[in-house]
Amino acid sequence: MDRKIEMYGGKSQLLKEKVAVVTGCSRGIGRSILETFVNNGAIVYAVDVIAGSMDDIESDNVHPCYLDITDVKAVVELVKKVKKEQGKIDILVNNAGIMRDALIPMVTEDQLRQTFEVNVFAMIHLIQYVSKVMKRQHSGSIINAASIMGINGNYAQIVYSASKGAVIALTKAAAKELAQDGIRVNAVAPGTIKTTLLDNTPEETLNKIKSTIYMGELGQPQEVANAYLFLASDLSSYISGQILGVDGMQIN
Question: Strand 243-246 and strand 183-190: pairing?
């Protein structure tokens, strides 16, 4: 099945003059979100833990910010910086996350702690501090990175699946609490997406995964980024508390 995948760039300006904070921007889906937002007119404060990983981007609308999102003080300083320089924050994309697989008997305390600190606790802290700015504006869109695994679970991924299940729950709870302040909160739940994480995956394994997808192909990072663009823009002005699956109808 051939799919026409487009990056909405330049012409639509769906995010013109909007200020966005996007985490986990150095590669994969995060990089596609960053590029898509910039190509649609946004000013993006691009956050990643890997120093120098975004220095190749040549755009006045991209502000690389290298920090550990589990460091609450660093998160507070980031929010203060954006507010001081731009006067507002229109969009928060909580894309950063980690995945450490293990069978149930092999799960360690370190794996549990790191996964939840990055995938859940840091997300809550970012929502806490960014929403303070958004409340004063009485507007804003927050989009969290969930996963099909947070809905269906997956073999040997009890910890990651649990963390993404928590993301789904916190998204729905935050949407209810922040709606009265004009802030929308949604999540995107990708299925299996063709990123560099799959580069060393055997062809046999990839074919097995494809057999579970009704559309018959792996998703592309740009297809996920387009979903984030929709939820960040005013096209979704009456949508909140939703989990948008981008999975090609993946059955498990």
Answer: parallel
Q: Which of 175, 145, 177 is nearest to 236 (CA)?
A: 175
Return the HEC string of 22-51: EECCCCHHHHHHHHHHHHCCCEEEEEECCC
Q: Using a pLDDT cut of 70, give the percent of the chain over it.
A: 95
* Percent residues over pLDDT 90 in the chain: 88
The DSSP 8-state label assigned to residue 5 in this structure reads -
DSSP 68-127: -TT-HHHHHHHHHHHHHHHS---EEEE-------B-GGG--HHHHHHHHIIIIIHHHHHH
**What φ, ψ does residue 209 adopt, rounded to 5°?**
-65, -45
Q: Which of 5-19, 93-107, 111-125 has the lowest mean pLDDT?
A: 5-19
Distance, in Å, from the CA atom of 101 to the CA atom of 103, rounded to the nearest integer, reads 7
List the one residue out of 161, 141, 140 whose CA is nearest residue 152.
161
Q: Is the pLDDT of residue 187 over 70?
A: yes
pLDDT in tens, 73-96: 999 999 999 999 999 999 999 999
Q: Where are the chain's structural domains? A: 19-246
pTM above 0.85, yes or no: yes
pLDDT at 9 exceeding the cut of 70: no
Q: What is the largest CA-CA distance in the chain?
A: 52
CA distance 133 to 5: 35
User: Among all residues, which ones are annotated catalytic?
Assistant: 160
The CATH topology of domain 19-246 is Rossmann fold (3.40.50)
